[in-house]
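To whoever picks this up:

The parser on our side crashed when reading a file containing two proteins. I've narrowed it down to the boundary between the first structure block and the second sequence. Both blocks are reproduced below exactly, byte for byte. First block:
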Amino acid sequence: MRILITGATGFVGGHLRRYFLAHTDWAITGTCYPETPPPPFDPQRETLHYLDLRDAGATRALLAQSPPDYIIHLAAQSHVPTSYQDPWGTLDNNIRGQLNLLEGLLALNLAPRTLVIGSSEEYGRAGVAELPLTEEHPLRPENPYSVSKVAQDVMGYQYFISFGLPVIRMRPFNHVGPGQSARFVLPAFASQVAEIEAGKQAPVMRVGNLEPARDFTDVRDVVRAYHLALTRGMPGEVYNIASGTPRTIQSLVEQLVTLATIPIRVEIDPERYRPADVPIIYGSAAKLKQDTGWEPEIPFEQTIQDVLDEWRQITTGG
């Protein structure tokens, strides 16, 4: 079996490749942009290619060169603050890239089982009585990134209905873990703790709005969910990936401060606030569990410890 993973060298893509190397005998084709492809984890089973999915011809050529049995489409501009700074760049990248991928499959008469990765950001804000969010909840995107994800989501459904492509859509809630960029909330805080412990920053952690509550799942549980959905999920369906437990940003900060080896003071930085922040959101993964048997396994306390330990190593060069 051959699988194509777009965005294969990103945060989730790296974990996904490791998972498939460890748990399957599939050959992996991965794409990356914009950097030069790094060395593969396993040169015998992996090939990595530079590809701008906005280039329809190059996208079709790669599909023709190595026709996949499975696709997981991860490649996207996924940073919400960046989407505010460059809304059209986010929309163009995320929508056109997926369109070229699906059109390439049609042109080559290929029909691999395909995961289209959306986001819980598609749901927007919800009243407490509406929680946990299920796949039936209305989509109310509140930022350019979530608008692009709604477009990818409904596009995946349209190509299933119109052309019979076996597309399965995923709506993961916040996922965190080792390897994530410090642009995101948990590693942003963990990197500050590591810098403070190493004496490279004053003992003050600068944070934004601590009140929002989010549904966090370890990325290693998320990639396992992708594999199960890809092989056991129903084409045309959409699945949440969620822990079902809301955790405030304040609780993340408190746990990290507790794990720190020296006292740390927390200060609010207004520059870190977003133009719009959903107060609380958490989801139900009951449908995914019913169809695939998935449920999260890694305790969140372990995730926090692993992320902090990674940033300690990065900061000290260990």
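<<boundary where parser fails>>
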Amino acid sequence: MCSLLWMFLIVWSVPAFSKEEITGATDSKIDSKSSGMEILNMWGERPAETQELYRIISNVLSKRKDASFADVAGNEEFQRVCAQYGVLHLGGPMLGCIGKNSARVWLRTTRPAKVEVRVIVEGVEKSFGPVESTPESDLTSVVTVTGLKPGTSHPYRVFVDGKQVTIPEHSAITTVSDDNKTRIAFGTCFHRWGLGNQKQADCIRSRAPAAMLIYGDIAVQDKLNHLGMHRADYQVRDFLPAWQSLCAAVPVCATWDDHDYFANDKSGIPLGYTDSDRAGVRKVFTQAWNNPSYGFNNQRGGVFLRTRIGPCDVIMLDNRYFRTGEKLGFLGNEQTEWLKEQLLDCKGPFIILSCGTMWSDFVSEGKDSWGKNDPAGREEIFRLIEENRIPGVLLISGDRHGACGFRIPRPSGYEFYEFEAACLGGRTGPASRAASFPTCLYSFSGQYAFGEFSFDATKEDPEVAFRLIGETGETLYALDLRRSQITPP
């Protein structure tokens, strides 16, 4: 009887969604098939030199599926334009791997070079690096900054071969506080154009999160195994002022979903492609972000990770790379076992557990998600949490455009809370149907917004405040929870 109740609650059928609901962009002139140049100029025409550089870069990268930024660096016209305008870097600085005493700074250069980061620490500028960018690293370097104090802000400068590069004026590393209070922003589905929304970027930055979790459909749009065009889409990201202003001050952690993996609904090794194609897509991804780790390493693959931000353990899953379509194959057996070990190992008061697609089936009918692919695997995870009384688990999800949240009832009487914020690109989608479900917490569609958790672990019963924030700072939905409320009985 309990299992029948579970199936009824979780796999409740919903009406079919029209193509317009799923794919309609906020700006009708921009959609998933728009060119990189169109995306680059969507939020205002970029300077002539930026457009000229992007034209050259995209031309080089589009010629071969394995084209890289080393090929771009070897292009004489590209180097001539860089010299003409004094361009020393193509992307970054992007902050990541934030902790109480350290952070990492990512940068992509225009040619192999030495990258140095200089940080103001207690009134004195200290130097970190240099770290070389190389053809093998796709012209990226990651500089580790250490020796900082918790809860302090440190302006920084970046140098390439001894020359200072232009970065946002507000660029600063703000370490995680040790007072057991932390704010973390999150969301999915920038879909390239949302990365250029300056109002949203400014709003996120103004709320001073310790980090931002982005877990799918971010910067690459359906480029399959054309690694050159994956790289070209990342270049659009890095030329957008809104993204530049955000990632230079807010550390990010990123995992992927279908569109930045291969294409819509693709997973595993898609039909007609090879393991080499899959490894190539992963390599481009790992060189374009600034995560503490990526899955099982280069030999075994994946991009999942676990990190700690203040009082919160963060586990970000990869529901694409290992998927087999078999029972217990949504994450792959190895990642599933890894996840179980991590959940049992977490010692903090809260755990953020992300998945690129939705945990529940209220809206998606399981489309490209757990419901039709692996309900047994989901059940194993939920039971593990319940049977071991793992406290403070917050489920976050994406994929199905818009923003909606749910309570997920369990046969035990416990309820999980799922917070979906697939609205960084302002798309419309099936979230507009979510309000018809009695377990729905919130439902918004067709507007820019991001999710946010504020943790306070100083109290006897630690608290988390969820907010769904619109692009201009308005609170669209608020929910405050105590850890005891999200701890299985």
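After patching the parser it read the second block fine. The radius of gyration is 22 Å. The longest helix spans residues 48-62.
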